[in-house]
Amino acid sequence: MTDEAALEQTRKAIQKWKKKRGSLIMALHEIQGIYGYVPWDHAKVVAEEMGVALARIYEVLTFYNFFKLESPGKYIISVCDGTACHIKGGASVIDAFAKHLNINPGETTPDRLFHMQIVRCLGCCGLAPVVVVNGKTYGKVSPADVPSIIDEWKKKEAL
Questions:
Q1: Dist. CA 75–CA 134, nearest whole Å
Q2: Residue 152: which residues within 8 A CB-CB, separation 6 or more?
Q3: DSSP conformation class of 132
Q4: Dihedrals φ, ψ of 21, to 5°?
Q5: How far does Cα 139 stand from its chain's mean position?
Q6: Quick one: CA dihedral 92, 98, 101, 102, positive or negative?
Q7: Model confidence over 33-61: pLDDT tens digits?
Q8: Is 53 helix (H, G, I), strand (E, B) or coil?
Q9: Helix, strand, coil: what percent of the chain each, to 5?
Q10: Distance (Å, whole) CA 133 – CA 119
Q11: How far, in Å, CA of 64 to CA of 87, rounded?
């Protein structure tokens, strides 16, 4: 997608929310849904078109953990650390992903293939500990399962 085509998509998202009071978060959410993050040049367009100070947009983007200012990896690994997952060993699963990928939570691998994030609840407490990779749910995950989960997604990349 060209830069101009991408900005046009952003402008369409802004127009959808522009006249609705208190809709800045919804507009930013939609933009992140398109790109996987909120590109800074697109945040400037939001500021101009919605009449919101750029500092306010930055404040929202950095306050809410959901928003990303940098492009995440192609495969987003969400490891649950909610109560049930934590009690059933979620922390050791987080550690296993960090060790296997050589990144910390919130980081992306240098090849931009994997991004690992910690989430507070995925709503699958009966399957704790739970991991979701790009929408695919893995239940009752142990640290020993981590290499095969990573390998599964690396194989998809090779296709």
A1: 6
A2: none
A3: E
A4: -60, 135
A5: 20
A6: negative
A7: 888 899 999 999 999 999 999 999 999 99
A8: coil
A9: 55, 10, 35
A10: 12
A11: 25
Q: Hunting for tokens 């100070």 — which residue is that?
A: 53
Q: Report the amino acid identity of residue 43.
A: A
HEC letters along 12-47 = HHHHHHCCCCCCHHHHHHHHHHHHCCCCHHHHHHHH
pLDDT given at position 2? 66
In three-state secondary structure terms, 142 is: coil
| Residue located via tokens 């020993």 | 144
Residue 108 main-chain phi, psi, to 5 deg: -120, 145
Q: How far is CA 20 from the centre of its chain?
A: 25
Query: What is the DSSP track for 57-80?
Result: HHHHHHHSTT--SS---SEEEEEE
CATH superfamily of 75-158: Glutaredoxin (3.40.30.10)
- Token code pair at residue 140: 């009752």
Instruction: Kindly report, residue by residue over 71-117, the tens digit of the pLDDT.
Output: 888 999 999 999 999 999 999 999 999 999 999 998 999 999 999 99
At 114, is the secondary structure helix, strand, or coil? Answer: strand
The full set of domain ranges for the chain reads: 3-63, 75-158
Quote the longest CA-to-CA distance of the chain: 51
